[in-house]
Amino acid sequence: MVVEELEQQIRDSLDEIKAQDTVAIDVRGRTPVTDLIVVTTGTSRRHVHAVARNVVDDARASGVVPLGVEGDEPTSEWVLIDLGDAVVHVMTQESREFYRLERMWEMDEACASTSSP
C-alpha cells in the first residue's frame, strides 16, 4: 500500500469514530523511521482508546499489520500506533497541547528550509 492510500485509510478510520483536528505530516526524507506522522485528538481517555482501536482494526482488515501499539492502558492519554510507513498519535487535547508534536516537525521544516548548502 502506498503512503497516500495508507493516509486515506487512516483518515477514514479517524473520521468514522469522530477523532478531531487530524493533521498528517509527510516526513519522507526527514527521518528514516517513517514516511507519515498523523496526530489526532480524542475527546477523553476513553475516546482516545476507541479511536486507536478503530485505526488498528481497520489497518488489520486491509492487510496492514501494526508493528506496535504503545500507551494502550486505560489511564493513558496518548496512544501511538506504528503502522510502518505511518505512525499515528491519538492524544487527549491536554496531552496534545503539552507535547505539541506538530510544532516539532514544523520547526524542523523551518530549520531545513533556512539552512544554506
Order of helices and strands: HEEHEEEHH
CATH architecture: 2-Layer Sandwich
- Please name the CATH topology: Beta Polymerase, domain 2
Number of domains: 1
Name of the CATH homologous superfamily: Beta Polymerase, domain 2
Mean pLDDT score, rounded? 91
Strand content: 15-25%
Number of helices: 4
| Mass-distribution shape | globular
Question: Which stretches are low in confidence, meaning pLDDT under 50 for 5 or more residues running?
Answer: 113-117
- Name of the top-level CATH class: Alpha Beta
Query: How are the strands ordered across the major sheet?
Result: 1-2-5-4-3
- Calculate the terminal CA-CA distance, rounded to whole Å: 34 Å
Structural class: alpha+beta
Radius of gyration: 14 Å
Q: Would you report the number of β strands?
A: 5
Q: Helicity, in percent? A: 40-55%
Biggest β-sheet strands, sense, barrel: 5 strands, mixed
List the keywords.
disordered C terminus; 117 residues; 5-stranded mixed beta sheet; single chain; Beta Polymerase, domain 2; alpha+beta
Give an overview in words:
With 117 residues, this protein is of the alpha+beta class. The chain has a single domain, classed as Beta Polymerase, domain 2. Helix content is 44%, strand content 25%. The protein is built from 4 helices and 5 strands. The protein has helices spanning 3-16, 45-61, 93-99, 101-114; strands spanning 20-26, 36-42, 68-70, 78-82, 86-92. It has a 5-stranded mixed β-sheet, sandwiched between helices. Helix 1 (3-16) crosses helix 2. The termini are far apart. 28% of the residues are buried. Mean pLDDT is 91; it is low at 113-117.
